[in-house]
Specification:
Elements: E1 7-9, E2 15-22, E3 25-35, E4 39-46, H1 48-53, H2 56-68, H3 71-80, E5 86-90, E6 93-100, E7 107-109, E8 117-119, H4 129-134, H5 141-160, E9 163-164, E10 173-176, E11 182-185, E12 192-193, H6 218-234, H7 243-248, H8 250-259, H9 270-282, H10 313-322, H11 331-334, H12 342-347
Parallel strand pairs: 1-5
Antiparallel strand pairs: 2-3, 3-4, 4-6, 5-6, 7-8, 9-12, 10-11
Helix pairs in contact: 5-6, 5-9, 6-8
Length: 381
């Protein structure tokens, strides 16, 4: 552990509302605190079990990661993910971390539940057309292609930075369709950075790499990207058939076939996917009316309101994994906690996580993004 990661004392934070709880911990919105005076903050507090099992030095490395990047790259990562930004200490030991809340653009209000904002995760899109329209989401094939192109670009850049998503699934990836289709990562503390993970890697059921394959690798991310591409056009939470994708682009269907290869070396790179997606997007046929995706058989899963555990399901997931992947370390592992204010803890590192009235500010655009926070349906450990 380098000791360079900013630490914040829990007593200096004011919990505004509870966002969710899972097996690895729980998540809270923090009052009157923002990253660089623009992004609201959330706090993920780990369970005692997670504190015992976590590699807190790996979390420290994640917190230090964005400040170590070129300013433009750091800003990009902070805007497209909920990356850990500071470690929270209490009573002599580290308890969790701060992250950014989910941006408003990546939430949605369903027609079936007016007046309630929900995390817009990809599970909503992996359904038949009738269901998607019933909940008030309008999406064309061209928008689906644009989402995949944005995700392919995100993954390519993450892999170049030696970051593997690992547990990539429709549950920890958010979307927006306006003003332009784009993606946003939550559960970032579950990612593997430069070969290190905070907690043991886990996979979401239905989104697993072939048996015996190492977890949290670029090759594994390519496999799961392929599953997402297939299912986005198939209109199902599960399934690996490429017929629907072939109706949109034969080239993409061929890539998908290779992308599910048991041999990781045979899987197309994210650059291969990006080029094919660009060509598909440029095809004038993409502006035609949406394909009608048939409803799956009754025994196949459908993601929707009923799948979110109770009224706080959507919150819980983000919280859940917010509680499901970062780590903590005993005081003995890192010495006495650094009792500094949020602003003081981050100013020297180029961040501003101070309250509205604070004059403490770091050097600029290297803003770490906080973690996702309001989603329940994610597997919590």
């Amino acid at each position: 552990m380098t000791g360079r990661a900013p630490h914040v004392d829990l007593d200096s934070l004011v919990k505004e509302r509870h966002l969710g709880k899972g097996g690895q911990g729980e998540v809270w919105a923090i009052k009157e605190r923002k990253i660089n005076k623009e992004w609201p903050i959330a706090y993920k507090e780990y369970s005692d079990f997670s504190l015992r099992e976590a590699d807190f030095a790996a979390l420290e490395a994640m917190v230090e990661f964005i400040p170590s990047l070129d300013a433009a790259v750091g800003r990009w990562l902070a805007e497209r993910s909920a990356w850990p930004v500071a470690i929270v200490d209490h009573a002599g030991r580290s308890r969790g971390f701060l992250m950014r809340q989910v941006p408003d653009d990546f939430t949605t209000e369903l027609a079936t539940a007016p007046g309630r904002q929900r995390i817009a995760d990809f599970q909503f899109l992996l359904n038949d057309q009738q269901y998607i329209e019933r909940i008030g989401i309008t999406i064309s094939d061209r928008q689906r292609l644009l989402l995949l192109k944005d995700l392919a670009d995100l993954l390519a850049r993450l892999h170049k930075l030696d970051v593997a998503v690992g547990d990539l699934s429709a549950k920890n990836l958010l979307f927006t369709l306006a003003p332009r289709p784009a993606c946003f990562f939550i559960d970032c503390d579950a990612m593997r950075l430069r070969g290190r993970s905070v907690l043991d890697q886990a996979e979401t059921p239905g989104w697993k790499v072939p048996d015996g394959e190492p977890l949290a690798t670029a090759e594994g991310d390519r496999y799961k990207f392929t599953l997402l591409a297939i299912r986005l056009f198939l209109g199902e939470q599960e399934g690996t058939g490429t017929a629907q994708l072939a109706q949109v682009s034969n080239e993409l269907a061929v890539l998908a076939g290779s992308g599910l290869s048991a041999d990781p070396k045979d899987r197309p790179s994210m650059q291969d996917w990006g080029g094919a997606l660009e060509r598909a997007i440029a095809d004038p046929q993409r502006d035609r009316p949406p394909r009608r995706i048939s409803a799956p058989p009754a025994d196949r899963p459908r993601a929707g309101i009923a799948d979110r555990a109770g009224g706080t399901a959507l919150l819980a997931r983000s919280a859940a994994r917010v509680a499901s992947t970062a780590s903590a370390v005993h005081a003995a592992d890192r010495g006495p906690c650094q009792d500094r204010s949020v602003a003081d803890a981050t100013a020297a590192r180029g961040f501003d996580i101070a309250g509205e009235g604070s004059r403490h500010r770091g050097g600029g655009a290297r803003d770490p993004a906080l973690h996702r926070l309001r989603h329940p349906s994610r597997r919590l450990r």
